[in-house]
Every structure is written in C-alpha cells, then in structure tokens.
Amino acid sequence: MIAYLPHTDEDIEAMLEVIGVAGIDQLFADIPRELILKEPLQIPAGLPEHEVYRRMRVLAERNRVQNVSFLGCGSYDHIIPAVVSHILSRSEFYTSYTPYQAEISQGFLQAVFEFQTMICELTGLEVANASLYDGHTAASEAAVLALNSVRRSETILYSSTLHPFTRQVLRTHFSNLPVHLEEIPSKNGTTDLVDLVAKLRPGVAGVILQSPNYLGYVEDLSGLAQDLHDNGSLLILSANPLSLGVLKPAGEWGADIAIGDTQALGLPSYFGGPSVGYITATEKLLRKMPGRIVGQSLDQEGKRAFLLTLQAREQHIKRERATSNICSNQALAALATTVYLATLGRQGIREVAEQNTQKAHYLYGRLVKETAAEPLFDRPFFNEFPIVLAKKAAEVLPRMEERGFYAGVDLNRLDPSTPEGTLAIAVTERRTREEMDAFVEALKEVLR
Amino acid sequence: MEIPKDLKYAKTHEWVRIEEDVAYIGISDYAQEELGDIVYVEMPSPEDSYDKGEEVATVESVKAASAIYTPITGTVKEINSDLESTPELINQKPYEAFIFAIRFSDASGFDELLDAQSYEKHVEQEKDSH
Fold it and tell me: Domains in chain A, please, with CATH?
C-alpha cells in the first residue's frame, strides 16, 4: 500500500541539504525525547476495500437504529423533510467553507441572509448573525456582547437551570478573564427570580436564562426585563427555537439578546453534532455583535444583491480590540435550518410545536397516572419533562433499550444536583400514539 | 496635511480644542486620511464620565476601526450628532467635525498634549517607522 507521501528519499535529502540539517530527526530536536514515538503505531495492517466494507457493516449492525427515541436535553429526534438533505447535498453548498471571497457566492449569501431573517422573526428581535458553533458557545458570545455593551461591567449572572453544558462552557470561557460569573439557584424547577433580583447591582452586564430550561420547564419572566433594565443590565434568553412556535419569544419578554441551538430545526442528532448556534439582539447592539453578518444591497445594475457587512467589528479588521474571535459560521448546518424553516413556514412551525406539546403532555399524563414514576415538579413544560423513577436510571435505561426504547436522558449523570433516578423524557412530533402506548407498557414492566 | 496651530494634539491622533472647562475632541487630518472613508462613529452617552486615556468613541472606516481616547478626565457634555447620519464629515472637515466634548475640572491633565509643531514631528516619525 502506498503511504501517500509525495517526497522521494532523494527529495528529502536535497531539501535537508539546502537548509543545512543532517537528518529528519534534527528537525524535531525541540520536542522532548519522551514524547517522540519510538516504534510504529499499533494499528492493524491494511485490508482490501471490500473487506473493510464488510467489517464496517458488521459494526454498523450493532447500532440500535430502530429503537424509538425519547432522548432530548438539547438534541431531539424530529422529522426532517427530504428536501433538507436534497438541498444540502448540492455540491455548490457542501463543498464550500465560509466563502472568503464571499460576494461571488450570491446563493450562499442569500441563504445566510434568509437564515438571519427567519431567526429574527422566530425570536422577535431585530438583528442576527450568520450563526455560531452551537447553543452553548452562543451563551458565552452573548455574555461577551453584554459585557462590551454595558459600561464598567464585569459580572454575568446565569441561572442554574441553564443546560449543564452551557454552564460548563461559560465557566471555561471566562476562567482566565477578569469576569465574575455568578450562578442563580433554582426553586422548584425554575430560576429563583427573587434571588436573581436581589443580586442585581452596578457592574452586572447581563443575566442568562433558559426557557424551556434544561429540565424542560417553562420559566415565567414577567417583569424581569424591566428590573434588569432599571439596573442597566441586559436580559439574555436562551430557547429551543422550535418551542417559539407556541411560547412567547425573547423579543416579547423584553430581552436584549436571544440565543440557542437550532438542532431541532432540520438537523439530526448524529452523535451530538454538528449543530448551529444562533444569536439575535436589539439593533442597538448591532455594532458589537460577534461573527459574520450578511446584508442586502443593490449591485451596480440596481438588482438585489447580498454581501458580508459591518466587518469593522471583526478581528481581521479590529484586531486585538475585536470583541469576538469567531470569524466563521456553521454554514452548511445553518442551511439545513434555513431550508427546514422555509419548508414549514410560519403555520408549519406552529403545528409542529403544537404536536410536540400535545404528544408530550399525553405521555406525561399516562406515565404519572399509570406507572411508579413521579413528576420531579408539577410545572408547565413544552416537549420534555423530568420524571423520577423508583429505581436507578442506570438500571432502567438498558432494560428499556432491550425493549426497543431510548427511554430518556439520565439527568443525574448530566447534573449531579438532580435527584438520582430522574429521567428527562422528550416527545417530538415524530412519536406516534402506538409508540407512546408501547413505551408506557414497557416502563410499567421495567419498574415493576 | 493640515495641522492648525491653535489646537492641541494627542499622540494617538486626536485634536483638542479647549473652551473654558470644555474640551472638544476630534481626529486629525492625518488620522482621517490613514483611516480612509469613514462609515460609522460609535458615540458615548452624554453625562457618562470617563477617565483620562479611556476609550470613549470608535471611528469605523471601510478598512479599519479606531478607538478615540479622551486626553482628560471628565463627563461627556455633548456629542456631534451630525456624525450619526454623515460620518464622512470627518473626512471632509476633520477640524470642524468634533466627535465629543468633555467637561473637565482639572486642566493639568493636558500637560502631555503636543502643540502643532511637535505633533507634525510625531507624525513624520510615525510615517518613517511604517
């Protein structure tokens, strides 16, 4: 088998001579000896193509792809119309990275512009960027935006009901920066707003909340924006964008910044990614927005045209004074969301969101009434809810898996402060009544 | 390159016109030329207070974004709101288009500012080092 190395021994010899080095090893003299590989990597020898296929097929068959999924907590099993992958698999889209000679890629720029427009409409805010890496990093970008917009601020408050990964990303992002992060406790499954308001003081740039929160519960934010604005602080609201088909969006809560992850809109769960982060804000914050922004203009013939705009914010122009180092976006995955939203339209999003709500509440009702599982709290939720099993999740989940179900996410594993045996169960429009009924019967058996 | 004699200058290329207890601040002819076509000026809020050397405004051109620092401690008395709709005034008339005005109480902070002659020397040095 060829090694795919383009240089012959003579080439290498000639190059070493030119730079005056005796041997290849000398090039790596700076690497500590104990870190250098002393023998070849322990990997098997090459196989013929058809044998590789056979091996991979055998491995793939061990996946339980036929299992019915009730997994959620940030990544959901939704219906994705075929048109999404059809558009995505056009080479004009899937072969291009962030187009740096952007204006020649009018099609891609138009798609990004439509992404921004639809995300603004969903969240009820005025400006959006071309997307961020995922919902968790969107939270740190939002925090930076707030810190840069509120003068003499150094503190970000965030709720303990943010997704545990979001909280981890925030702590990592700010760990070596002169920024003070403070967690607001929860009370009966939602943010303790009394505690939050008591923590407001000069220097608080913003407060990050998530609704539906990581437990699935809807937060009641009535009057909160006013309290924050009176303190000169910004309200940052994270939401599963699909929930906005039935729930009040950030703009209506008076939020200044909306963030989240668009996995629920046209992206499969894969193995947890890739996904798309979104961020929208009031127009006042436009000049401090992170990332790429596509604008609409006219070309020299007066026809509608698209362009990258407001680039003076970005680090290739603003250098060390730039407020964010993201100069890319999740173009292809954001395109999936764009096609998904365009396909469903306003009415479609509403219907999908309503089905999610109704199906989740149907299953919740049956589980609470008929099984030995108890709700963690009795609170309004969208399409996922936590229930407390009488047994350990680690015991229940494999047995449900044998019966054909991914029964839910073990919340205690995700966040040790959640009681042991708490399962987050997500129900999407994809679940049928038969599947839910069979799930209830299976859980009854397993909990018996 | 125009450098009016009646103004003071900062090494960071702001010009300063002092009228009693108020300092009007803009950017020099050299600075506007270096920046190119100015498309946006981010202004401070009136009544906000700033320490000497702090970033108060940002001037954005098509190719750069530049911070404008205050040479004196004080509060923002006034901003040039004409620049919100016509930022190109800075390119056209750099010494008329002030960006913001700071009301100060201690004028000794101005000691480090340059006169026209020293500023010209400073600009020449900076050009040479490019």
Answer: 68-78+346-447 (3.90.1150.10), 82-340 (3.40.640.10)
